[in-house]
Amino acid sequence: MSATEDTKPTLSQEEQADEDQVEASPDIHFEPIIKLEEVEVKTNEEDEEVTFKMRAKLFRYTSGEWKERGTGDVRFLQHKDTKKIRLVMRREQTHKVCANHYITSDMELKPNVGSERSWVYFVKADYSEEEPTPETLAIRFASAESNFQY
């Protein structure tokens, strides 16, 4: 006998017969203890359509230096009625808004010095914080080929 055969429990003929006769149990269903009602979540994007979406990193210029604001999908949303376009960016894991401003005709998109994949622009009112604030922002894409053309 090998060592593995010694450790196997042996069943008597009666126990073997009982095990062969075990019926399949019916499907068991448990009702949840707590029932949560479905909550409708409003994103304020219901009346808008995504016209552009790409992963990027956002920086803002403050106190004489560039500070990272977040990484995630940058989306251009066009309102179905007014046709206004706004840029919205949410941080990847927390989904917190890190950029929220309209694209206006007076905005100037400039290539960032020393980088083919980074662009700098100024907005008069960014609504990602509680109060709208003027911001100088830089957006950097994964590669130069992924940039949109202006």
Low-confidence stretches: none
Number of helices: 2
Question: In terms of structural class, how would the helical and strand content be classed?
Answer: mainly beta
Content of β-strand: 35-45%
String of helices and strands? HHEEEEEEE
Q: Kindly, what is the distance between the CA atoms of the first and last residues, rounded to a whole number of angstroms? A: 80 Å
What is the topology, as strand order, of the major beta sheet? 4-3-2-1-7-6-5
Helix content: under 10%
Tell me the total number of β-strands.
7
Mean pLDDT reading: 84
Radius of gyration of CA atoms, rounded to a whole number:
29 Å
Organism: Entomophthora muscae
Protein name: Ran GTPase binding protein Sbp1, variant 2
